[in-house]
Amino acid sequence: MTLNNEQKAILIGMILGDTYLQRTGKKNARLRLEHSVKQKEYLLWKVSKFPQLFQGQPKYIIRQHPISGGIYRYCRHQSNANPELGKWRLRFYRDGKKKIPENLKDYLKDLLSLAVWYMDDGYYYNRDKVSYLYLGRITKKEAEIAAETIQDNFRIPSKILDKKQKGFALYFFPRETKKLHELLKKYIIPSLNYKIRP
């Protein structure tokens, strides 16, 4: 199986964001997508971009938080497994854990990749006109690689914040947020327009 340039760009953004590349056997892997029911349109958009990978319909799952008791409704879809995805897993996973690779600049070169990453993990705070890109529980070095890559490849500087239990995040000041949103807005799907400046 081969991926076209658009699929590669979307896949890179997905891997950096919420998508899990699950190992299946020695060489294969599959994509696992999970989004809240409110983001069903976004999940279906991702699935539609990889018709050779996904079959059937997503599953709808209800989960109760063991501590708070809150009810969470979300959608899950898993792709077929194949060696091409296995190769991508080797690039972004080490010892079974997702990592931001040192050569991220070689992968995160397309605005579409950055847009998908932002749709997954970005947040726009309208009151202050600023944006965040949540990186999760990674190392400070990985956060620095992410910041440097976005600065060098897209000319958008950011500040690294330690959000404690939430992990690291990139913070974009108002001027950088405006530039980020201008670059990404043509890729943002309608149901996620709340993540960019109106």
Describe the protein in words.
- It is a single chain.
- By secondary structure, the chain is an alpha+beta fold.
- It has two domains: 18-93, Endonuclease I-creI (Roll); 104-195, Homing endonucleases (Endonuclease I-creI), CATH 3.10.28.10.
- The protein has six helices and ten strands, in the order H-E-E-H-E-E-H-E-E-H-E-E-H-E-E-H.
- It has helices at residues 5-16, 40-48, 83-92, 111-121, 140-154, 174-184; strands at 20-24, 28-36, 59-64, 71-78, 93-94, 97-98, 122-125, 130-136, 159-162, 168-172.
- A four-stranded antiparallel beta sheet has the order 1-2-4-3.
- The longest helix has 15 residues, at 140-154.
- It is globular.
- 33% of the residues are buried.
Kindly, what is the distance between the CA atoms of the first and last residues, rounded to a whole number of angstroms? Answer: 40 Å
Q: Which segments are poorly predicted (pLDDT under 50) over 5 or more consecutive residues?
A: none
Kindly report the spatial arrangement of strands forming the biggest sheet.
1-2-4-3
CATH superfamily of the largest domain: Homing endonucleases
Q: Number of DSSP strands?
A: 10
Q: What fold name goes in the CATH topology slot of the largest domain?
A: Endonuclease I-creI
The global form is: globular
**What average pLDDT do the residues reach?**
94
Specify the oligomeric state.
single chain
